[in-house]
Hints:
Blueprint: E1 5-8, E2 12-17, E3 22-28, E4 34-40, H1 44-75, H2 81-88, E5 105-111, E6 116-121, E7 131-135, E8 141-146
Parallel strand pairs: 4-5
Antiparallel strand pairs: 1-2, 2-3, 3-4, 5-6, 6-7, 7-8
Amino acid sequence: MPAQTIITDKFGSMALNPIIKFYETKVVMPNSKLLHVAITATNFEIGVNQANSFLEWVKVNDQAFKLSLEDRIQNADLVWDDIWDSILGKDWVEAEAGFLANYLHYDELRFDGEELHLWVNTSGLHTDHKIRATINEEMRIVCCEML
């Protein structure tokens, strides 16, 4: 049975959630919001390093990352046109780059043993669903889907 708590250099104390078998903690992001971090016991050290690398990178590159996330969301049609139109008060194609980025908030960063996933809250732009972005080691979005 895995340890109930692991102390890491990068995240401090991480407690095991026995139901999902992930070690969990919360970190404070630059905007003072808490981000839930969850790393599976499988490949734990790899997950800690990838999660930490992403968090350090996104602290410096948040706006650029959100713009790339916005682009992926638009290209995958994950926010419906009529919702965009109602918020903007005009056709969404007239929106300036970065419009959607203002509505995006990071809820959870999760390493599942193989991939790093960022769960993104769109501030209600499509009801209760969240967007899951899969991030590679080069800090690129390789997949973006609504779940």
